Amino acid sequence: TAVNTEAPAPKAPTLPDAQKVTFVKHWTDRLFSFRVSRPASLRFRSGEFVMIGLMGDVNEKTGKAKPILRAYSIASPSWDEELEFYSIKVPDGPLTSKLQNIQVGDEIILRPKPVGTLVHDAILPGKRLWFFSTGTGFAPFASLLREPQTYEDYDEVVITHTCRQVGELEYGRQLIEDIKQDELLAELIGPDFHKKIRYYPTTTREESPKMGRITDLMRSGEVFADLGIEPINPETDRGMVCGNLAFNVEIKELLESYGLEEGANSDPKQYVVEKAFVD
Ligand code: A2P
């Protein structure tokens, strides 16, 4: 009998749950997006998040390195071959100080266990769906805006994005442009793009066509006047919220004042909230 005497080739050390980086784009000195390969077995619902990260430095005492993992919304839709993420860069952030240096061909760690409440399953059917975001809170909506179900289930989608500066809106603005050019989504969106998707970007610390916090613009009624629509009504309007903590708290109060109630996967209602992830 033939015996294979060859010793197995030593394996190059690879990360647990490693995925390869396929694309990186820096939008501002504080923001970047990247794409990685998608594990063949990974199924998720548009709007969910996963834990991703990198190996930390080797601990001098133990001689071992531990992964540094953070929750990140998947910015790509459930049908995409790859996974996209949109991240802030925090100079002394344990993960993002390293993650911001990734290059095409590098590996990141991705735990394939998607979870989250910014999903269609967690809200009751309605006519108009609002996505309220600040900063990197746009990420889950980058997924949901490319999800066909969004347009099948709702007559209209309003996406609001509030950032400090104009440059921070660019990822979202580009995404809306890409959707306009997408042939498959175009069929669902129909001939009147701006009626089906209303994009409402605002800035708070740099001059732009629409300035102010979205919460203030809602209280004053300016948003509804600008869009030419009725104020939020619990019979027809549904909301998904993702932003910084203070924003989430404020907009929750606002939505409750319109009569909307917070839902969950196990108990769908009129709106859902999740915190935008920061390092
Ligand atoms: P502002 O510049 O007035 O603080 P950050 O980069 O700090 O996460 O903020 C992102 C955006 O969210 C900023 O435009 C910021 O406005 C806005 N923001 C912060 N807190 C609130 C809040 N409570 N309600 C509405 N918008 C907020």
Question: How would you describe this protein?
Answer:
This protein is of the alpha/beta class and 279 residues long. It has two domains: 18-115, Elongation Factor Tu (Ef-tu), domain 3 (Beta Barrel); 120-275, Rossmann fold (3-Layer(aba) Sandwich). The chain contains nine helices and eleven strands. The strands form two sheets. A six-stranded antiparallel β-sheet has the order 4-3-6-1-2-5. The chain has a five-stranded parallel β-sheet with strand order 9-8-7-10-11, sandwiched between helices. Strand 1 (18-26) and strand 2 (31-37) form a beta hairpin. The radius of gyration is 21 Å and the shape is globular. Bound molecules: adenosine-2'-5'-diphosphate (A2P).
DSSP, total strands: 11
Question: If strands are numbered along the chain, what order do they take across the biggest sheet?
Answer: 4-3-6-1-2-5
**Order of secondary-structure elements:** EEEEEHEEHHEHHHEHHEHE
> What number is the mean pLDDT?
94
Query: Beta-strand percentage?
Result: 25-35%
CATH A-level architecture of the largest domain: 3-Layer(aba) Sandwich
Per DSSP, the total helix count is 9
CATH topology of the largest domain: Rossmann fold
CATH class of the largest domain: Alpha Beta
The ligands found in this model are:
adenosine-2'-5'-diphosphate
Alpha carbon gap, first and last residue: 58 Å
Helix content: 10-25%
Q: Please, how many domains?
A: 2
- Mind describing the biggest β-sheet? 6 strands, antiparallel
User: For the record, what is the CATH homologous superfamily label of the largest domain?
Assistant: Nucleotide-binding domain of ferredoxin-NADP reductase (FNR) module
Judged by helices, strands and strand pairing, the structural class is alpha/beta
Rg computed from alpha carbons, rounded to a whole number of angstroms: 21 Å
Which consecutive residue ranges, at least 5 long each, have pLDDT under 50? none
